[in-house]
Structures are given as C-alpha cells and as structure tokens.
C-alpha cells in the first residue's frame, strides 16, 4: 500500500530502510510550497486537521513538521489564531536617531505601544551612572511593550532624567512618542545617541510578556540619548525578539548603514 507521504519504495527516500522521518518530508513539502508561492508571505496555512488529511499523517507528526518550520523562521504559529507564513522583512536603520517604532511606522507597518507602567522612583546604580545623576535622584521609569501587527516584538524600559521626568509623567505614551513629548513639553531636542546591541536569551520574567518560551534568542539594546548640550536625557534598555529580527549592514566606500530586518 502506498504511503501518502513517502510512497512504498520512493527513490527520494531511499526505500523503507533509508526512509527519512515523515515529519521531515512534510517539512520539505510545505517549505517548497512556500518557496513556490502556493502559500504566500503573511498567508495562513490550512488548518492542521486539513493538512493531516492532505499528508495522511497523525496530528503529532504534522506538529513536528510545523515546529521545524517555525524554528527555521519560515512560519509563525499564533496560539488560538493559526499558522502563518513569515511576512516579508522590514528595515530599522540604526544610523539615525529615529526609534524602531518610527522606522517601522514609516514603512507602513502596524506598530502599537502598550504602556505597562509609569512611575517616578529612585533608579538603579547603572542608570544614575549613565545619566550622571546623584544616587537619590528621582527619575521616570517608563515601561512599554511594542507590538507589530498585534504581536509583541520589543519590551522596553526607558529612564528619563530630571527635570524632564516630572514634566512628562502624565503624557499618554501609548499614542505619543517619548522624543516628541520631550520636545513639545520640555523643549528638549535630542542631538545624539549611543547604542550597544548584544545577543542574549529571553528571561523567565519577560517570556510571558513577549509570548515566547524562556531561552528564546533575543537582542539586548542599551541606548543613551543626549541633548544638544551633550547632557544625558534618556537611557533605554530593550529586549528585541531575536527570532524575528536580524541586523543587516549596508556598506559603501565612505559610509555604513545598519538596519534591522523584521523577519516575522
């Protein structure tokens, strides 16, 4: 009897003794359909039970194949919503003072901000050192989550130095960008920023917020923003999903531009 996935003695699988695991064959077939445009970028895949009937396999085998595709970044599985082909990349240029949110919005990508907490408080030592503050200074801690097409992408904590901290405390940061608030409320214009990005893994504390498993690859970004007088204004620390972002460098003879590629 012929196997719907591998066939009885298919040369492609080397016969029964050399047959590859069924889930790998399914993975290759779905990847091929994505490459050929049968399943287009951003499109949902058929329901899992429909795919099981298509390939003649159990739900467990199909899910192994989908997990392999997800691990490779070809699909995105959204619990309760379905499975989608990874959308096309978008770029975030690190060579400008624009934020990741501003860059993605300028490309027509749906980015929303969820404000988790805003509070005036004492800051950790690394924050007071970076912002050149006394240890007892009161700063504004702005805790936000950035979502792309409704899916969390970035967890961000911003520390705003006094005297600006109190001035922007009541701003609605779900709709007003921080730099815009500093300019309009405080008359502060940012002039420069230094940013350090390093690889890391998602902590157990942040995993529920970003809807990923602890240990998922992430990028950790520390960014210090300076005003025109070179005084520190904001220190940002962000966790960016490493399974959805990659850094790309465009080099020419006289310059280099760095950008993020949004892979899902």
From TrEMBL:
Keywords: DNA-binding, Transcription, Transcription regulation. Residues 1-21 are annotated as: Disordered. It comes from Micromonospora radicis. The keyword Methyltransferase does not apply. The keyword Cell wall biogenesis/degradation does not apply. This is GntR family transcriptional regulator. Residues 20-88 form the HTH gntR-type domain. CDD domains: WHTH_GntR (cd07377). InterPro entries: Bact_HTH_transcr_reg, Chorismate_lyase_/UTRA_dom_sf, Tscrpt_reg_HTH_GntR, UTRA, WH-like_DNA-bd_sf, WH_DNA-bd_sf. Pfam families: GntR, UTRA. GO terms for molecular function: DNA binding; DNA-binding transcription factor activity. PANTHER family: MANNOSYL-D-GLYCERATE TRANSPORT/METABOLISM SYSTEM REPRESSOR MNGR-RELATED, MANNOSYL-D-GLYCERATE TRANSPORT_METABOLISM SYSTEM REPRESSOR MNGR-RELATED. GO terms for biological process: negative regulation of DNA-templated transcription.
